[in-house]
Amino acid sequence: MSTTPTGARVRTRFAPSPTGFIHLGNIRSALYPWAFARATGGDFILRIEDTDLERSTQAAVDVILEGMSWLGLDPDEGPYYQMQRMDRYREVIAQMQAKGLVYPCYMSVAELDALRERQMANKEKPRYDGTWRPEAGKTLPPVPEGVQPVWRFRNPQGGVVAWDDKVKGRIEISNDELDDLVIARPDGTPTYNFCVVVDDIDMKITHVIRGDDHVNNTPRQINIFRALGQEPPVYAHLPTVLNEQGEKMSKRNGAKPVTQYREEGFLADGVVNYLARLGWSHGDDEIFSREQFISWFDLDHLGRSAAQFDEAKLRWVNAQHIRMTADDQLAVLVAQQLKKRGVESIFEDHVARICAVFKDRCDTTVALADWAEKFYRPVQPAVEEVGKHVTEQVRPAIGMLAKMLETCPWNRQAIGEAIKEVLRATGLKMPQLAMPVRVLVMGTPQTPSVDAVLELCGRDAVLRRLQAA
């Protein structure tokens, strides 16, 4: 088991906000802390940051839980919900009030806006100016009547806040760049940056692996950690995932909920493999199992530049995993796809044999199901395909083959011998007979070996389809 420098057990977390459906860019921020916890024998915690009541939805929570479950990113603890921890946050705020770590601020929104406008007009960075911060010898403005204050954290003055980021290296921010953060609103509800720190302390988080959109929050959070007498965790801020147009991946920019990839026939292991390489590497290894990923994963090989999503590459990776997956496992997934299409009387051992023959040419289980469906429903070849391949020249050979298939043993070898005998008798080449047979039986001139396909189709269906010529 790996531990932190202090000897503590490694504990990582994924803390999504359920304000939109989680997509592949988001789920990568779950994959890496999950993998690090697994690689070090530590714990992975799921925390739902649902304090944005206006935008948080149960449907978004469901997609988080369902997507993580599908991908096998199971937490050791959680999900914890921030809205269920409000009493704990208020308890810590009260402790900070008692210690003088926070102070009430009565500056109204209108006053704050006016201050910012003046600062911008003077080409200064807009920030709270500490009007209500108590200092020795300072006279505070009179407290306005009937106004509930916000509570601001006394950010340290002077010096820097610094950390060694596992992705970005050393980062230093001057404390004078940071104003006094609001940690509680007028109604007493806590704010995001404060809740995160209390959660990370209570949950004993040792490593925070998250998107680099949180870098600006980190110095504020570190200062709160230290004010509460705690050392901050190790941070690793992951570069953004871009979509295929080079924009930040988001729902607004067309990103799909992660669960949609399951519906589209992607394998969980294929998606995990692809996502793992979207910001981390192990030499030149492109295709690897989940077990290999866990055994190889560390924070030292995280990429420093933004990764770009490429659906064609995801499909290629998924195709490799389909080939690596046992036929009986694929059959379960393909049977589920067929049942969604209303196909009844499915035998998984038969579907497994179909998978064995067709999986080398498929990049999703949906593509496999497209082939499998042809064995369970009537096939209607396109008129142009029939006209092109089922010519008057070849019809006698098709009839001869149908006659021989009525009585030959129904296995691939015997079917192959029957086809060869027809070729010898008619002088045709294999493609001249095989392509029209494929069109009639499967609706397409391109399939794997024709004898294997006919065996899977069954004698009655093959004869019925050939006789339709």
UniProtKB/TrEMBL annotation:
Q: Where located? A: Cytoplasm
Q: Where is the composition biased (Basic and acidic residues)?
A: 125-136
Stretches for region Disordered: 125-144
> What are the alphabetically sorted keywords of the record?
Aminoacyl-tRNA synthetase, ATP-binding, Cytoplasm, Ligase, Nucleotide-binding, Protein biosynthesis
Q: Tell me a GO cellular component.
A: cytosol
Q: Tell me which CDD domains the record gives.
A: GluRS_core
Motif ('HIGH' region) on chain: 16-26
Q: What catalytic activity does the UniProt entry give for this protein?
A: tRNA(Glu) + L-glutamate + ATP = L-glutamyl-tRNA(Glu) + AMP + diphosphate
Q: Which GO terms describe its biological process?
A: glutamyl-tRNA aminoacylation
Q: Give the binding site residues for ATP.
A: 251
Please list the residue ranges annotated as the Glutamyl/glutaminyl-tRNA synthetase class Ib catalytic domain: 10-316
Q: Which GO terms describe its molecular function?
A: ATP binding; glutamate-tRNA ligase activity; tRNA binding; zinc ion binding
Is Metal-binding one of the keywords?
no
Q: Which residues form the Aminoacyl-tRNA synthetase class I anticodon-binding domain?
A: 346-469
- Note the coiled coil stretches, chain numbering: none
Map motif 'KMSKS' region onto the chain.
Answer: 248-252
Write the Enzyme Commission number(s) for this entry: 6.1.1.17
**Family stated for the protein in its record:** Belongs to the class-I aminoacyl-tRNA synthetase family. Glutamate--tRNA ligase type 1 subfamily.
Q: How does it assemble?
A: Monomer.
Q: Which NCBIfam families match?
A: gltX_bact (TIGR00464)
Function comment: Catalyzes the attachment of glutamate to tRNA(Glu) in a two-step reaction: glutamate is first activated by ATP to form Glu-AMP and then transferred to the acceptor end of tRNA(Glu).
* Name by which UniProt lists this protein: Glutamate--tRNA ligase
Record the organism: Ramlibacter lithotrophicus
Q: Which gene encodes it?
A: gltX
